[in-house]
Amino acid sequence: MEAIAPTTRVVQGPSLRQRLAARGFDAVTLLVVPAAVFSLLLFVYPFAFGFILSFEPKNGGWLANYQRFFSDSYLYDTIANTLLLSVPVTLLNLLFAVPVSFRVRLMRRQRLLTTILVLPITLGTVLVAEGLLNYLGPQGWFNRTLVALGLIDQPLRLVHNYWGVFASLVITGFPFTFLLTLSYVTGIDPALEQAAATLGASAWQRFVHVYLPLLMPGFAITFCLSFVQAFSVFPSAVLLGEPAGSTRVISIAAYQAAFEEYDYSMASAVAMIMGFVQLAIVVLVLASRGLFYRGPASGAKG
Amino acid sequence: MTIALSQFGEVRLDRVSREFGALNALRDVSLTIQRREFIALLGPSGCGKSTTLNCIAGLLPVTGGAIWLDKNRIDTLRPEERGFGMVFQNYALFPHLNVRQNIGFGLKMRGMPKAEIDRKVNEALGLVRLQGQENKLPGQLSGGQQQRVAIARAIVIEPPLVLMDEPLSNLDAKLRLEMRAEIRRIHNELGATTIYVTHDQDEALSLADRIVVLRDGVVRQVGTPKELYEAPAHLDVAEFMGFRNRLKGTVVSVENGRALLDVEGSRISGVARENLSVGSTAYAAIRPDDLVLGEAGGNALKVKVDTIEYRGREFVGTAHSEGGLDFVFRSHQPVDLGSTVHLQADDQRVLVFAEPIKGRR
């Protein structure tokens, strides 16, 4: 029998389909289409619309809205007011979430505790706000207990000011921060801590030298997501705070521009500024991750 | 060599027990380890060998008994206070620290001056032959190199005791042999007292000065590799030491340390390793090496050949008897599949054990 030799030379290269597939475009790519359409219609278009709208003020030049915002302290103070609420709240939530996660990580029946901790998310901010109004109010249980115990003479003013909103943001923000933190903490190989212990590291040293450096990138992400949530606070700032004073947050300014002055262009400008401030903080925090190790948090291959 | 291991006499486990709820993972384990000794804890998975190691390291509290380092009771100390170097199965290297920082971690925790840390780390790097790799992160190293870092990190703190938990189980076969020799070499150079957990009897036989065989949380036998290999005390230890053929039979007679069994109508004679009474059930244990083709009659059984594998120097076959006993044997010539042959064993090479007591759980 004759040996089979490759007599026909391959003239054509790979087909267009093969070449596209090699670059990552194949039929599976079509699965992205619904999501792309969705985000185009519900995010990209409104955003672009609002962006352009913000440069078409009712009167004055194309930057008039922005000039007005940054020259009126009643408006530009809202940035500081919002940051003063959202940054401390986010940091406090993170600070609470870390020890709780470290404890929950070791527990057998995590599910039950996690469910209890996550409950506030499902209640919604308005219900929490109404509850706090009663609970923390001058005639609420909290003040009455403190008075009864003789710790204070006069009820503390805890609602319709900064602290009311603060408490509400902590309650509704904590579960979210906690869940994220827990997932990062449990992602670290427990053998690393054991290894550090056998090498003579005390519990504090193990946290500082092993856990903390490995958790920092995760904490940065957690901070960003929790921060963005707290920054867009609206219902509790109105219901529990003093919406004309210390808790006049930026979303209230946007609301007033849109629905009290009917100036959608100004409202869009406020929204753009709000977005820019969030973006600036998020970029800053995420960029700081570069200072830390970001690889896998287990003992490498194993 | 300035990595000097701290001076002590012995580590003593005194009836150490560990319970997990209703499960007794360890029951009254007593063991004395002399300075410079290399001890292997050997046993199948779930036998309690890793539990023993974790109890010694302090990663698991004991629920009974005590552990002593000379005259000091240490089972009440936290792991960081015991200062034993430990090599973990997955190495547990700190992924965010480079090789130098990983090895120096324990010294840094002790507050040692930086210059001295550097000097000791350099020495440890030399000992495990990792010079030139000190600035790499663990993720950039091969499995064998990670293993070396883990060993260096454990010994640089100059611990009285080095604990190794199946350190070679994540490596491929070739690297495993290479690292086994390395561990041997490092032990010879430093003389570090070592407890080494493994389920691989070859590793235990080649590395250890003494082997402790555990099963169901109980010490079954302690001895030198030679003692265990040649004279296992129980059937389960024998099986672990390569006695793959176990022939169930009835004791016909016991005389002068020799037992005669009735196995499916044939007479098998061997060395009695446990107390046997005439008429009771017993097992004859034979290594595949000692089971060869022979004639009917003298210490032989009739079997049918099931498989035959070519292994270069010899053939390894499996067979079964009419009564359903399975056999593994060696042969220098090929044997036809399905043929009926007689397998024979020298009666000096057959060990006879009593029926094992069912493990308590």
TrEMBL record, chain A:
<keyword id="KW-1133">Transmembrane helix</keyword>
<feature type="transmembrane region" description="Helical">
    <location>
        <begin position="162"/>
        <end position="186"/>
    </location>
</feature>
<feature type="transmembrane region" description="Helical">
    <location>
        <begin position="27"/>
        <end position="54"/>
    </location>
</feature>
<dbReference type="InterPro" id="IPR000515">
    <property type="entry name" value="MetI-like"/>
</dbReference>
<feature type="domain" description="ABC transmembrane type-1">
    <location>
        <begin position="79"/>
        <end position="285"/>
    </location>
</feature>
<keyword id="KW-0812">Transmembrane</keyword>
<feature type="transmembrane region" description="Helical">
    <location>
        <begin position="112"/>
        <end position="136"/>
    </location>
</feature>
<dbReference type="GO" id="GO:0005886">
    <property type="term" value="C:plasma membrane"/>
</dbReference>
<dbReference type="GO" id="GO:0055085">
    <property type="term" value="P:transmembrane transport"/>
</dbReference>
<keyword id="KW-0813">Transport</keyword>
<keyword id="KW-1003">Cell membrane</keyword>
<feature type="transmembrane region" description="Helical">
    <location>
        <begin position="74"/>
        <end position="100"/>
    </location>
</feature>
<protein>
    <submittedName>
        <fullName>ABC transporter permease subunit</fullName>
    </submittedName>
</protein>
<feature type="transmembrane region" description="Helical">
    <location>
        <begin position="264"/>
        <end position="287"/>
    </location>
</feature>
<feature type="transmembrane region" description="Helical">
    <location>
        <begin position="207"/>
        <end position="231"/>
    </location>
</feature>
<comment type="similarity">
    <text>Belongs to the binding-protein-dependent transport system permease family. CysTW subfamily.</text>
</comment>
<dbReference type="Pfam" id="PF00528">
    <property type="entry name" value="BPD_transp_1"/>
</dbReference>
<keyword id="KW-0472">Membrane</keyword>
<dbReference type="InterPro" id="IPR035906">
    <property type="entry name" value="MetI-like_sf"/>
</dbReference>
UniProtKB/TrEMBL annotation, chain B:
<keyword id="KW-0067">ATP-binding</keyword>
<dbReference type="InterPro" id="IPR008995">
    <property type="entry name" value="Mo/tungstate-bd_C_term_dom"/>
</dbReference>
<dbReference type="GO" id="GO:0140359">
    <property type="term" value="F:ABC-type transporter activity"/>
</dbReference>
<dbReference type="Pfam" id="PF08402">
    <property type="entry name" value="TOBE_2"/>
</dbReference>
<dbReference type="InterPro" id="IPR003439">
    <property type="entry name" value="ABC_transporter-like_ATP-bd"/>
</dbReference>
<dbReference type="GO" id="GO:0043190">
    <property type="term" value="C:ATP-binding cassette (ABC) transporter complex"/>
</dbReference>
<comment type="similarity">
    <text>Belongs to the ABC transporter superfamily.</text>
</comment>
<dbReference type="InterPro" id="IPR013611">
    <property type="entry name" value="Transp-assoc_OB_typ2"/>
</dbReference>
<dbReference type="InterPro" id="IPR003593">
    <property type="entry name" value="AAA+_ATPase"/>
</dbReference>
<protein>
    <submittedName>
        <fullName>ATP-binding cassette domain-containing protein</fullName>
    </submittedName>
</protein>
<dbReference type="GO" id="GO:0005524">
    <property type="term" value="F:ATP binding"/>
</dbReference>
<dbReference type="GO" id="GO:0016887">
    <property type="term" value="F:ATP hydrolysis activity"/>
</dbReference>
<dbReference type="Pfam" id="PF00005">
    <property type="entry name" value="ABC_tran"/>
</dbReference>
<keyword id="KW-0813">Transport</keyword>
<keyword id="KW-0547">Nucleotide-binding</keyword>
<dbReference type="InterPro" id="IPR017871">
    <property type="entry name" value="ABC_transporter-like_CS"/>
</dbReference>
<dbReference type="InterPro" id="IPR027417">
    <property type="entry name" value="P-loop_NTPase"/>
</dbReference>
<dbReference type="InterPro" id="IPR050093">
    <property type="entry name" value="ABC_SmlMolc_Importer"/>
</dbReference>
<feature type="domain" description="ABC transporter">
    <location>
        <begin position="11"/>
        <end position="241"/>
    </location>
</feature>
